[in-house]
């Protein structure tokens, strides 16, 4: 016994060596448990991820490279990869139905909570399936397909602003334009019209007067990073209320709140909704399951989601389409030819109606191919396995584990789109028979899938289908060559698949959304 007592006297309980030893043993035991005994222990993946000692997803959220890094993991480890201590990413198209089906026992994970705005939860961020179903039913009138015709006028007026701005640039001898910025402004204006009946007027002046765009990008980047560690979310929310706001941060929320307030006032005075063609009008008529009217906060949250979900996504799709189409002379001339022929035969006229845009079959195939190879949301969409567990892609996942599928990864897998899945080939959508087409549509996750599928899909498709043929018809476009004197900020561009090259026209960061920046194009009128 003597040596033991001696040890206790020499090394008291709080001695750093003991504390360090205890902590190291606890960490080691934690890592061993995660690697050997955790319910996902049999799923392959990088050892540090499996140990739970490294957050691969937080690293991706910081490095903004989720798309290609996740693709690499699947190429190395197969169809199911452990990407977090408690999460497996799956790229087997057969799992889409199992994960995203209606009445699924799987629900969204806490990741989504970080995407909520100041007005609280909305459709996108509501986790509970039943609650989500109630909100979706209540808000469905705002997204009804029959309203598309009303919304079309709003898109037309923003198209006029966009063309006006680009024409002015060309007339002033400045046909070199950063399309990443102007298309974002266009998308924000359109969504302002759709949500609140009035554009923000950014496109008409061709600039972002509040310097808001970088702020929006940062907000999403931080929200996504926080989502990878949901336990810090309440602290970040608390901190964001304490820290001083950047001067421009309140500008758009201020305008939005002002417009909502004045509409409610108008409603109060007139006693009826007064025929506005926007989603605000529909949200004002929404009812909760108990029959009560939507509160001001609910109207704000629903409107905030339309503004947040409907601008980045469409701008990303438009830029990507230009990149893919203009980047391939064969495809570019086919698109232009189709539009020119349709104009000269009188099959379509401008302003282009959505129904006429749908007649442009090659253009529509290019749009589908764009959404496939550059889905606006590449992040692995996470779902929590519910009571009783679930068998997905041939593997049994126990309750409480998380599974996810990345649209970017699934769309590039041969089992989903064939051996040329990585190639931009619009013809695949035209050559396919009815059965193949159904499979390709089913495997497309650009808008999500199942009961949580994008509610604004029809609106987004309408907007892009109206605006892009107009741009292709009016302008000859080319990518501004990168040189020491060109306006580019990056010495080399980066494609959506992570490839860095001086001939790549824009720079992609891949996180919750895959945003392009620094997209300089030379524009000239085709009729000059
Ligand atoms: C090309 C354009 C668009 C793309 C690629 C896109 C993509 C997506 C994706 C991937 C999701 C599902 C996310 C998930 O499961 O976690 C989503 C949800 C959503 N999107 Fe879109 N979106 C687009 C345009 C729009 C527009 C224009 C609006 C509004 C007018 C909109 C409103 C919504 C809403 C409300 C949800 C949540 C639906 C729910 O959870 O019930 N989106 N979108």
UniProtKB/TrEMBL annotation:
Cellular component per GO? membrane
So where does this one cross the membrane? Answer: 13-33
Q: Which annotated residues bind heme?
A: 454
The protein's location, in the record's own words, is: Membrane
What Pfam families does the database record attribute to this sequence? p450 (PF00067)
Q: Which cofactor does it need?
A: heme
Biological pathway: Secondary metabolite biosynthesis; terpenoid biosynthesis
| Example GO molecular function | oxidoreductase activity, acting on paired donors, with incorporation or reduction of molecular oxygen
Q: Decide whether keyword Iron is in the record.
A: yes
Gene3D superfamilies named in the record: Cytochrome P450
Primary place of residence? membrane
What are the entry keywords?
A: Heme, Iron, Membrane, Metal-binding, Monooxygenase, Oxidoreductase, Transmembrane, Transmembrane helix
Q: State the similarity comment.
A: Belongs to the cytochrome P450 family.
The entry's protein name is: Cytochrome P450 oxidoreductase
């Amino acid at each position: 016994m003597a040596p033991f007592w001696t040890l206790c006297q020499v090394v008291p309980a709080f001695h750093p060596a003991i504390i360090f030893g205890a902590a190291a043993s606890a960490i080691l035991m934690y890592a061993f448990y995660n690697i050997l005994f955790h319910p996902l222990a049999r799923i392959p993946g990088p050892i540090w991820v499996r140990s739970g000692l490294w957050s691969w997803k937080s690293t991706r959220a910081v490095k903004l490279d989720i798309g290609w890094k996740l693709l690499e993991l699947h190429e190395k480890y197969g169809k199911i990869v452990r990407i977090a201590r408690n999460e497996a990413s799956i790229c087997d198209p057969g799992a889409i139905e199992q994960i995203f089906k209606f009445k699924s026992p799987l629900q969204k994970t806490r990741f989504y909570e970080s995407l909520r705005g100041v007005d609280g939860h909305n459709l996108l961020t509501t986790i509970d399936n039943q609650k989500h179903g109630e909100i979706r039913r209540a808000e469905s009138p705002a997204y009804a397909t029959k309203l598309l015709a009303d919304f079309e006028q709003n898109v037309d007026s923003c198209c006029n602003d966009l063309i006006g701005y680009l024409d002015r640039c060309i007339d002033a001898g400045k046909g070199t334009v950063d399309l990443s910025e102007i298309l974002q402004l266009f998308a924000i204006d359109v969504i302002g019209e759709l949500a609140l009946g009035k554009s923000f007027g950014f496109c008409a002046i061709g600039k972002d007067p509040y310097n808001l765009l970088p702020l929006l990008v940062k907000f999403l980047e931080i929200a996504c990073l926080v989502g990878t560690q949901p336990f810090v979310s309440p602290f970040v929310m608390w901190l964001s209320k304490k820290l001083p706001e950047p001067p421009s941060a309140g500008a758009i929320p201020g305008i939005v709140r002002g417009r909502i307030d004045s509409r409610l006032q108008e409603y109060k005075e007139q006693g009826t909704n007064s025929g506005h063609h926007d989603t605000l009008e529909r949200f004002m008529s929404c009812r909760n399951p108990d029959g009560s009217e939507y509160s001001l906060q609910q109207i704000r949250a629903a409107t905030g989601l339309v503004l947040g979900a409907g601008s980045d996504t469409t701008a990303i799709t438009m830029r990507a389409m230009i990149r893919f189409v203009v980047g391939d002379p064969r495809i570019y001339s086919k698109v232009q030819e189709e539009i020119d022929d349709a104009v000269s035969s009188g099959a379509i006229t401008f302003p282009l109606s959505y129904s006429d845009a749908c007649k442009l079959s090659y253009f529509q195939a290019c749009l589908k191919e764009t959404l496939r190879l550059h889905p606006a949301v590449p992040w692995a969409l996470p779902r929590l396995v519910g009571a009783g567990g679930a068998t997905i892609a041939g593997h049994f996942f126990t309750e409480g584990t998380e599974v996810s599928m990345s649209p970017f990864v699934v769309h590039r897998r041969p089992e989903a789109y064939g051996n040329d899945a990585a190639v931009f080939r619009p013809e695949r959508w035209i050559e396919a028979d009815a059965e193949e087409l159904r499979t390709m549509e089913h495997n497309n996750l650009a808008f999500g899938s199942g009961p949580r599928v994008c509610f604004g899909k029809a609106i987004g498709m309408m907007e892009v289908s109206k605006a892009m043929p107009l741009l292709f018809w009016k302008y000859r476009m080319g990518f501004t060559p990168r040189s020491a004197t060109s306006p580019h900020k990056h010495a080399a561009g980066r494609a959506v698949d992570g490839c860095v090259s001086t001939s790549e026209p824009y720079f992609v960061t891949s996180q919750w959304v895959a945003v392009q920046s620094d997209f300089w194009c030379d524009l000239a009128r085709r009729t000059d």
